[in-house]
TrEMBL record:
<comment type="similarity">
    <text>Belongs to the class I-like SAM-binding methyltransferase superfamily. TrmB family.</text>
</comment>
<comment type="function">
    <text>Catalyzes the formation of N(7)-methylguanine at position 46 (m7G46) in tRNA.</text>
</comment>
<protein>
    <recommendedName>
        <fullName>tRNA (guanine-N(7)-)-methyltransferase</fullName>
        <ecNumber>2.1.1.33</ecNumber>
    </recommendedName>
</protein>
<keyword id="KW-0489">Methyltransferase</keyword>
<feature type="binding site">
    <location>
        <position position="157"/>
    </location>
    <ligand>
        <name>substrate</name>
    </ligand>
</feature>
<keyword id="KW-0808">Transferase</keyword>
<dbReference type="InterPro" id="IPR003358">
    <property type="entry name" value="tRNA_(Gua-N-7)_MeTrfase_Trmb"/>
</dbReference>
<feature type="binding site">
    <location>
        <position position="153"/>
    </location>
    <ligand>
        <name>S-adenosyl-L-methionine</name>
    </ligand>
</feature>
<feature type="binding site">
    <location>
        <begin position="224"/>
        <end position="227"/>
    </location>
    <ligand>
        <name>substrate</name>
    </ligand>
</feature>
<comment type="pathway">
    <text>tRNA modification; N(7)-methylguanine-tRNA biosynthesis.</text>
</comment>
<dbReference type="InterPro" id="IPR055361">
    <property type="entry name" value="tRNA_methyltr_TrmB_bact"/>
</dbReference>
<dbReference type="Pfam" id="PF02390">
    <property type="entry name" value="Methyltransf_4"/>
</dbReference>
<feature type="binding site">
    <location>
        <position position="78"/>
    </location>
    <ligand>
        <name>S-adenosyl-L-methionine</name>
    </ligand>
</feature>
<feature type="binding site">
    <location>
        <position position="130"/>
    </location>
    <ligand>
        <name>S-adenosyl-L-methionine</name>
    </ligand>
</feature>
<feature type="binding site">
    <location>
        <position position="189"/>
    </location>
    <ligand>
        <name>substrate</name>
    </ligand>
</feature>
<dbReference type="GO" id="GO:0008176">
    <property type="term" value="F:tRNA (guanine(46)-N7)-methyltransferase activity"/>
</dbReference>
<keyword id="KW-0819">tRNA processing</keyword>
């Protein structure tokens, strides 16, 4: 779900323009009109109505969590939230946390923005931009309580696996952003990728696994569309939990 491409919305009347930063490019290079042909009417309307309240544009410079959310609750970042169903439920039921959701998929971004706006989920903020760029340029070290990464693209073919999200450099980046006691929680239905997650995170300095291997299912995580597809194919669902020492 997390790709090497992100998009930000600029504060232009009705947010009709989308500026895109493409892989390997140093600056945004293209703009697209946000028309109904790409989104359903309610999704387009959600961006126009709610983005200025719940959306955060990409801008190099560290975020002040208290300023962003208006309180001192711990912050959890979800990377690649897809259609956002699990995100909305978790944010509503576990409202002792604030949540920053990162997703480059336009339809999913707009759908969750609609849910957040209609539900007045004031503990959620959303960004449509590449996670590495956001974490590197906008998130202070040792400031995050947790990371959620649910069903990232497994890139199953061997020649594609270098594109997987959970690899050593990214794991080190995540660990650097965690507070002591913070966690990384990953879920996948691709068993070989799950083993890779365990291996990579086990060898990341500063992280520890409170379980002997995979963690037991976490009850507060909602079943996602990707999980349902995996279960239909009889794929095992593996959950990985690591904590910052």
């Amino acid at each position: 779900m997390q790709e090497n491409q992100g998009t930000i919305f600029h504060d232009i009347p009705e947010l009709e323009w989308v500026e895109t930063k493409e892989e390997g490019k140093a600056r945004p290079i293209k703009s697209y009109v946000l028309r109904g042909a790409y989104l359903r009417t309610y999704q387009t309307e959600a961006i126009r109505r709610y983005y200025t309240t719940y959306g955060i544009p990409f801008k190099p410079g560290l975020l002040d969590w208290k300023q962003v959310f208006g309180n001192d609750k711990p912050v959890v970042i979800e990377i690649g939230f897809g259609m956002g169903t699990a995100t909305a439920r978790i944010a509503k039921e576990r409202n002792q946390y604030n949540y920053l959701g990162l997703e480059v998929f336009l339809s999913g971004f707009a759908k969750l923005l609609h849910a957040v706006g209609e539900g007045k989920l004031d503990n959620v903020r959303l960004m449509r931009f590449d996670a590495v760029e956001v974490l590197t340029n906008m998130v202070e070290d040792a400031s995050v309580a947790g990371f959620h990464i649910f069903f990232p693209d497994p890139w199953p073919k061997k020649r594609q696996q270098k594109r997987r999200l959970i690899q050593a450099p990214f794991a080190r980046l995540l660990a650097s952003k965690l507070k002591a006691g913070g966690y990384i929680y990953c879920v996948t239905d691709w068993e070989e990728y799950a083993q890779q997650m365990l291996d990579v995170l086990s060898h990341t300095e500063g992280l520890s696994n409170p379980y002997s291997g995979f963690c037991p299912p976490v009850g507060w995580r909602d079943t996602t569309k990707f999980e349902q597809k995996g279960l239909a194919k009889q794929h095992p669902i593996n959950e990985v939990w690591f904590e910052k020492r």
